[in-house]
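Subject: sequence -> structure tokens, single chain

Hey, anyone have a minute? Need the predicted structure for the following. Not urgent.
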Amino acid sequence: MKDMIERALSTRDKDENIMGMVTFPCNEEEVLQRFQVDDLKELYFVDRPDSRMSVARFNHIIREADARAEKINSMIGTAVCFLMDKLDQNPEWRGSSESVPLNFEDATVWNWCMKDDYQPVDEKTKVWFHRGELTVYYGEQKNKQQW
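Reply:
Had a minute. Here:
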């Protein structure tokens, strides 16, 4: 899991906008001074300028990332146990999947901190994120190129 996330921030509606990279979680007071603004609401993410997520909210979510990642791993583990039981009851099945819904904060942690580094507990498990939920698959894997 990534401990720090680097994102580009910029001011808006100034004669000369200031842009720079910030490592999250960050010290909000230092960011205010660096960008010469009075409130974090005056900043936006360059990579997603239309995002409704504020800099302060993103910073807060990233500060909680370790606990949220533990929660997500626990939910994935529970889904895998459920799927293993399902396959034991239906030996003719090659695999099965289960959806694990994520709230906004958990989805943010998955997308920014976990998805690139996540390692399943075994080779029979595959996890992917789509439309606000994780899909956990357990069973025989297809050819890696088909994923």
